[in-house]
Protein backbone atom coordinates (compact mmCIF):
# COMPACT_ATOMS: atom_id res chain seq x y z
CA UNK A 1 0.00 0.00 0.00
CA UNK A 2 1.41 3.40 -0.95
CA UNK A 3 1.62 6.40 1.35
CA UNK A 4 -0.62 8.43 -0.93
CA UNK A 5 -3.57 6.14 -0.33
CA UNK A 6 -3.03 6.22 3.45
CA UNK A 7 -3.35 9.99 3.73
CA UNK A 8 -6.75 11.27 4.75
CA UNK A 9 -8.50 13.09 1.93
CA UNK A 10 -9.40 16.69 2.41
CA UNK A 11 -12.99 17.65 1.96
CA UNK A 12 -13.44 19.20 -1.45
CA UNK A 13 -14.74 22.71 -1.40
CA UNK A 14 -18.04 23.22 -3.05
CA UNK A 15 -19.89 26.39 -3.80
CA UNK A 16 -18.93 29.67 -5.31
CA UNK A 17 -16.93 32.60 -4.04
CA UNK A 18 -19.16 35.36 -2.74
CA UNK A 19 -19.15 38.49 -4.90
CA UNK A 20 -19.41 40.73 -1.85
CA UNK A 21 -16.19 39.19 -0.48
CA UNK A 22 -14.38 40.00 -3.72
CA UNK A 23 -15.86 43.53 -3.76
CA UNK A 24 -14.74 43.99 -0.16
CA UNK A 25 -11.11 43.29 -0.99
CA UNK A 26 -11.20 45.42 -4.14
CA UNK A 27 -12.73 48.33 -2.23
CA UNK A 28 -10.11 47.87 0.49
CA UNK A 29 -7.28 48.02 -2.04
CA UNK A 30 -8.46 51.19 -3.80
CA UNK A 31 -7.07 53.62 -1.16
CA UNK A 32 -3.73 51.82 -1.17
CA UNK A 33 -3.47 52.50 -4.89
CA UNK A 34 -4.93 56.02 -4.91
CA UNK A 35 -3.18 57.47 -1.84
CA UNK A 36 0.27 57.83 -3.45
CA UNK A 37 -1.32 59.40 -6.53
CA UNK A 38 -3.30 61.90 -4.47
CA UNK A 39 -0.26 62.81 -2.39
CA UNK A 40 2.25 63.23 -5.22
CA UNK A 41 0.24 64.55 -8.18
CA UNK A 42 -0.21 68.04 -6.67
CA UNK A 43 3.55 68.16 -6.04
CA UNK A 44 4.37 67.04 -9.57
CA UNK A 45 1.84 69.54 -10.96
CA UNK A 46 3.90 72.42 -9.56
CA UNK A 47 7.07 71.30 -11.32
CA UNK A 48 7.79 73.08 -14.59
CA UNK A 49 7.75 70.59 -17.45
CA UNK A 50 9.09 71.90 -20.76
CA UNK A 51 6.27 71.91 -23.28
CA UNK A 52 3.81 70.37 -20.81
CA UNK A 53 0.84 71.75 -18.94
CA UNK A 54 1.58 73.44 -15.65
CA UNK A 55 -1.38 71.80 -13.91
CA UNK A 56 -2.56 68.39 -15.20
CA UNK A 57 -5.95 68.89 -13.58
CA UNK A 58 -7.16 68.87 -10.02
CA UNK A 59 -10.45 67.18 -10.97
CA UNK A 60 -8.72 63.81 -11.24
CA UNK A 61 -7.11 64.31 -7.85
CA UNK A 62 -10.50 65.13 -6.31
CA UNK A 63 -12.04 61.98 -7.78
CA UNK A 64 -9.22 59.82 -6.44
CA UNK A 65 -9.44 61.52 -3.03
CA UNK A 66 -13.18 60.86 -2.89
CA UNK A 67 -12.60 57.22 -3.81
CA UNK A 68 -10.07 57.02 -1.01
CA UNK A 69 -12.68 58.30 1.46
CA UNK A 70 -15.63 56.20 0.31
CA UNK A 71 -13.99 52.88 -0.46
CA UNK A 72 -12.94 51.95 3.13
CA UNK A 73 -16.56 52.33 4.19
CA UNK A 74 -17.66 50.19 1.25
CA UNK A 75 -14.98 47.59 2.07
CA UNK A 76 -16.30 47.32 5.60
CA UNK A 77 -19.95 47.11 4.51
CA UNK A 78 -19.26 44.57 1.75
CA UNK A 79 -17.12 42.49 4.11
CA UNK A 80 -19.81 42.38 6.77
CA UNK A 81 -22.47 41.48 4.20
CA UNK A 82 -20.25 38.69 2.84
CA UNK A 83 -19.64 37.44 6.36
CA UNK A 84 -23.35 37.26 7.05
CA UNK A 85 -24.01 35.46 3.78
CA UNK A 86 -21.20 33.01 4.48
CA UNK A 87 -22.51 32.21 7.95
CA UNK A 88 -26.07 31.76 6.68
CA UNK A 89 -24.97 29.51 3.80
CA UNK A 90 -23.38 27.01 6.22
CA UNK A 91 -20.24 26.57 4.14
CA UNK A 92 -21.77 26.62 0.67
CA UNK A 93 -20.39 30.07 -0.13
CA UNK A 94 -16.63 30.57 -0.17
CA UNK A 95 -14.60 33.70 0.42
CA UNK A 96 -13.97 33.74 4.16
CA UNK A 97 -10.39 34.95 3.74
CA UNK A 98 -11.44 37.58 1.24
CA UNK A 99 -14.13 39.16 3.41
CA UNK A 100 -11.83 39.07 6.43
CA UNK A 101 -9.14 40.89 4.45
CA UNK A 102 -11.71 43.45 3.27
CA UNK A 103 -12.94 44.08 6.80
CA UNK A 104 -9.39 44.46 8.13
CA UNK A 105 -8.42 46.81 5.29
CA UNK A 106 -11.59 48.87 5.76
CA UNK A 107 -11.15 49.26 9.52
CA UNK A 108 -7.43 50.04 9.22
CA UNK A 109 -8.00 52.63 6.50
CA UNK A 110 -10.84 54.29 8.41
CA UNK A 111 -8.65 54.50 11.52
CA UNK A 112 -5.83 55.97 9.43
CA UNK A 113 -8.21 58.53 7.91
CA UNK A 114 -9.40 59.62 11.36
CA UNK A 115 -5.80 60.06 12.54
CA UNK A 116 -4.94 61.93 9.33
CA UNK A 117 -7.89 64.30 9.71
CA UNK A 118 -7.05 64.99 13.37
CA UNK A 119 -3.43 65.74 12.47
CA UNK A 120 -4.51 68.02 9.62
CA UNK A 121 -7.02 69.81 11.86
CA UNK A 122 -4.45 70.52 14.58
CA UNK A 123 -1.77 71.47 12.07
CA UNK A 124 -4.05 73.91 10.26
CA UNK A 125 -5.22 75.39 13.58
CA UNK A 126 -1.61 76.01 14.60
CA UNK A 127 -0.85 77.66 11.26
CA UNK A 128 -3.96 79.85 11.22
CA UNK A 129 -3.83 80.88 14.90
CA UNK A 130 -0.19 80.77 16.03
CA UNK A 131 0.39 81.22 19.74
CA UNK A 132 2.37 84.35 20.68
Write the layout of secondary structure elements.
Elements: H1 3-6, E1 16-17, H2 19-45, H3 58-89, E2 93-94, H4 96-128
Parallel strand pairs: 1-2
Essential attributes:
single chain; 132 residues; mainly alpha; two-stranded parallel ribbon; 2 strands; 73% helix
General description of the model:
By secondary structure, the chain is mainly α. It has one domain. The protein contains four helices and two strands. It has helices at residues 3-6, 19-45, 58-89, 96-128, and strands spanning 16-17, 93-94. It has a two-stranded parallel sheet. The longest helix is centred in the last third of the chain and has 33 residues, at 96-128. The radius of gyration is 23 Å and the shape is elongated.
Summarize, please.
The chain has 132 residues and is mainly alpha-helical. Helix content is 73%, strand content 3%.
How far the N terminus sits from the C terminus, by CA atoms, comes to 87 Å
Spatial sequence of strands, sheet with the most strands:
1-2
Assembly type of the chains comes to single chain
Strand content: under 5%
Number of strand segments: 2
Radius of gyration using CA atoms only: 23 Å
Amino acid sequence: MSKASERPRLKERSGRTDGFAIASVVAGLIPIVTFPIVMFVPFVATLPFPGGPRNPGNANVRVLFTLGLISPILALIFGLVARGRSVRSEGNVRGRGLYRAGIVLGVAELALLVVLFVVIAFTNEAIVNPEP
